[in-house]
Amino acid sequence: NGEHNIEISSRISTYYNQRFLKPGEEERDKNRFRLRDAQLIIEGRIRDDWEYEVQVDFADIGSNNTGEIDAENPGLMDAFVTYKGLEAFNIKLGYSKLPYSRSSITPFPYSTYWQRAQIVRGDFFSRRDVGVTLYKDFWQKRVNAFAGVYTGLGESSLSGDNDASGNPEFVARVDVSYPAPMKNREIDYVHSSIPLFSLGLNGRYTNKNLPDGEAFPDGAAGEYGLKIVDGKKYTYGMDFTFQYKGFSGQFEIHQINAQPQNENDPLFLGLTPAQTEGRVLAGGYFSQLNYFVKDYNTIVSVRYEQLDLNDLNAGDSKRMSAAIAYQIDGFDAMVKLQYFNNLNDQESLDPLDWNQQIRLGLQFNL
Amino acid sequence: NGEHNIEISSRISTYYNQRFLKPGEEERDKNRFRLRDAQLIIEGRIRDDWEYEVQVDFADIGSNNTGEIDAENPGLMDAFVTYKGLEAFNIKLGYSKLPYSRSSITPFPYSTYWQRAQIVRGDFFSRRDVGVTLYKDFWQKRVNAFAGVYTGLGESSLSGDNDASGNPEFVARVDVSYPAPMKNREIDYVHSSIPLFSLGLNGRYTNKNLPDGEAFPDGAAGEYGLKIVDGKKYTYGMDFTFQYKGFSGQFEIHQINAQPQNENDPLFLGLTPAQTEGRVLAGGYFSQLNYFVKDYNTIVSVRYEQLDLNDLNAGDSKRMSAAIAYQIDGFDAMVKLQYFNNLNDQESLDPLDWNQQIRLGLQFNL
Amino acid sequence: NGEHNIEISSRISTYYNQRFLKPGEEERDKNRFRLRDAQLIIEGRIRDDWEYEVQVDFADIGSNNTGEIDAENPGLMDAFVTYKGLEAFNIKLGYSKLPYSRSSITPFPYSTYWQRAQIVRGDFFSRRDVGVTLYKDFWQKRVNAFAGVYTGLGESSLSGDNDASGNPEFVARVDVSYPAPMKNREIDYVHSSIPLFSLGLNGRYTNKNLPDGEAFPDGAAGEYGLKIVDGKKYTYGMDFTFQYKGFSGQFEIHQINAQPQNENDPLFLGLTPAQTEGRVLAGGYFSQLNYFVKDYNTIVSVRYEQLDLNDLNAGDSKRMSAAIAYQIDGFDAMVKLQYFNNLNDQESLDPLDWNQQIRLGLQFNL
């Protein structure tokens, strides 16, 4: 009826991936076809007050993994209700993306790439959680402000329990666009006739001191043990983007300040409190430049990333990647090709067995 | 077309939960935001003869737990077909709720609470199973009678196999309403002008003598090892409900008579056959009183529960809880607050680490 | 709108199964009600060029098994996009059925049986995979030709990775119908007035030499360790079908030629290279005859199967089965009864504990 509108859509994407290993390496399990997305999206609206969305990816659910949830591709992607009936602010309740990092918030189907930059992919900080977000826009939508509180285990919060500390995570973000409001898109597909800029600042904090003998749920700390820390974790970041005449760019930088409660925490890498001063920094940045060649329905992008998993360790990692997307039918049907070059890795913390990687596939929004 | 009608709906609910632990306890993993429901419901009808329903909860499926199925919140909630073309009775085939316990059958979105009473939550007896149900109403719908046969592993039957005994479970129920038929609802939201009563009786039986060396599937016996028994299990219960001028009440009592085949069954608590006489009783009751304050779109409820997990053990447990729900948009959008008080627990069998619990959240039917 | 059509349908089926065990056997876990299917099917078309389908079975997803994917009943059944805009051939991308074996490709809701023949059920060769298929028809649709390349782990490819060999599987098929094109259906429900025949040939090849110390993912090799082989695997098959005046028949034969790279591969059964000549053959055939008794809305079928799991072992297995289906509402609502007789099993490789099996249930397409 007129009061309640519901819309169902779908998304399918699949690619072939080829990795070029370092000499002597033999683990070729990343040379494969992959079904990345087989999503069902249910969006609804009741009058002008209430909006809701449930988004599920059967490619991930059907693969039936072993209890852990893949932060970049979780089976349940969204399940929230938003109430817009208040003057003071809007309220979002349920499981959805955290208001942290512009890249994380930007919808992925509009990207030239098959993967977000490493630092915003869900291994450094969680991208989704269960909780409450308040948000509001000002200055004719040029300013957006968000604040929320969440379980704090990120994607693992879906399993229903917190860790034994029982503490939440707090997240806040504000962004300002000028001279006009900007949509969260990587590509300037309208070829903006005036230059548009947007700057974002965000921070988050959690204090998850575990009681003696307790541990975090499997997988909750992520690939690098940084997503949650047995102690305090501060995370802050800045992002900047522009769009002009088909050109667009993104720059984003994040730092984690982790303060584990125990001197023998693995994050301290075996160093003494005198050496560590009780805290570990991790972080990095990426910058990306895109151009939309309208006449040829083609987007080209290039990205550079730097990451340091732990400042107590001397190394860091650097990656360069390029991507090209050809639009068969706008953003609804694209062929995407991505090239990755692993320039340098942080060997003692995260040694990689490959140098280069190519990914070619098709992406559909239905 | 006119012959085949299909309807798709959705349900989302989320809450914050806070537990107040007993002195000395430190496990605070229940202090958290939780996504309780993210459901998709597909209901259909072909002519007047056939009805079907598939109900899925992506909140549970997406959490991807480790092979066990949560009886109160299974990922698949309903998948059945009903044939109403026969004179003699209706037939329901597939996976759905068992015709046992009024509270279990009553749809939950109409409740003031976030949880059913402990005894009907799926830990004492299963609430869903795969099988066949025959049912019929009499006396202008005042009497409903049900009888069915099922795999007998309850929610675990979804995995496709029976236990090694290969035996089914039999379930039957009859309820009588007076002076008029009653819907299965906890709350008198129509403020009935005459007093309505309904009385139900139900029983179930299974004989699952396992062959030597065999065991039940993981999780099938439930939290207290009572859902299935290596031997005979009789379960019987009575329920009563009334509605009048916005007031409504529920009373429900159940008893399990378990007769394990082996003298050293854990249910015997190490006692000798002379002491146990070869059988174990477990059971309890709850009573609940509700009032719907129509002018304020508000429901208030209070519930008292008593449980004895094993009559060979001296103790029992007692709980008191209260709940209040505010209707933003009828039962389709409610804020619900629930308070739980653990008055007494059966310490040697099921010691609890908490005294009180508060749960506050939002529930949506879309 | 007119350019984009989307259609949602559903499928539910459930049965009771009874096994008659061999004397002395006690494992009766196959005596049970089972929810076989609770499917959601989303099909779409954009203009005449693009088609897509996502098919999910919640009966399998909800049972939440332990990381392995059941090849005959996977949770995700289809997630693909087809492009038909090219002159030269059509392209199918994503996860779907492989173009190998007529029986495997034939939609199952039109079968009299509850199970496909053993050799085409997904234990000898995979039935679904992620990859690319090119196909085209000739001679006014009388000839269909298919060729594709896939990850090669079959249903396990859904988990996203390949094995450590990193090698793909290649599959090709061609079938010829005469005198007219034939749909992929087991039953002649139109009572063809002229005899229709179709002959198919198909082959597949993969070379999955694992590096030292690596293993295939759990479950990927299937029940008999034949689905993937640590070495080369050639598979080829022939199938034939006819339809005439309500009668129809299927014959299908397959052989696996496995050439494990290691002399001590379990497939060699401990024999020496001199004895095995470095290769193992496995295979078998089935033939099935059906008649559609139109006046009684009834289908009867009989099937005979022979299987040899390993030619280095002396035995083989033989099975006979019969089935009858009564159409309440065409193929959309059928009662199906299937009888299985285990005539002979290959005792040292795959000893069975049962002689006969009966399966009775209801199948719905909605």
Walk me through this protein's architecture.
Three copies of one chain form a homotrimer. Chain A has one domain (87-365): Porin (Beta Barrel), CATH 2.40.160.10. The first copy, chain A, is built from three helices and 16 strands. The two termini of chain A are 23 Å apart. The first copy, chain A, is mainly beta and 366 residues long. In chain A, a hairpin with a 4-residue loop joins strand 6 and strand 7 (143-150). The first copy, chain A, has helices spanning 58-63, 102-105, 273-276, and strands at residues 4-21, 32-46, 50-57, 76-83, 90-97, 128-138, 143-150, 169-178, 196-207, 231-244, 247-260, 280-293, 298-308, 317-327, 333-344, 354-365. In chain A, 4% of the residues lie in helices and 51% in strands. Chain A is globular and about 60 Å long.
List the helices and strands and how they pair.
Three copies of one chain form a homotrimer.
Chain A lengths: L3 E18 L10 E15 L3 E8 H6 L12 E8 L6 E8 L4 H4 L22 E11 L4 E8 L18 E10 L17 E12 L23 E14 L2 E14 L12 H4 L3 E14 L4 E11 L8 E11 L5 E12 L9 E12 L1
Antiparallel strand pairs in A: 1-2, 1-16, 2-3, 3-4, 4-5, 5-6, 6-7, 7-8, 8-9, 9-10, 10-11, 11-12, 12-13, 13-14, 14-15, 15-16
Query: Structural class given helices, strands, pairing of chain A?
Result: mainly beta
> Rg of chain A, please?
21 Å
For this structure, the CATH topology of chain A is Porin
Q: Could you tell me the number of beta strands of chain A?
A: 16
Any idea what the CATH superfamily of chain A is called? Porin
What helical percentage do the residues of chain A reach? under 10%
Give the tally of structural domains of chain A.
Answer: 1
Shape of chain A: globular
Along the chain, the helix and strand elements of chain A come as EEEHEEHEEEEEEHEEEEE
> What's the quaternary structure here?
homotrimer
Gap between N and C termini of chain A: 23 Å
Largest interface: A-B, 48 and 32 residues
| Share in β-strands of chain A | over 45%
CATH top level of chain A?
Mainly Beta
CATH architecture of chain A: Beta Barrel
Strand order of the largest sheet of chain A: 1-2-3-4-5-6-7-8-9-10-11-12-13-14-15-16
State the low-pLDDT regions of chain A, or none: none
Number of helices of chain A: 3
Mean pLDDT of chain A: 93
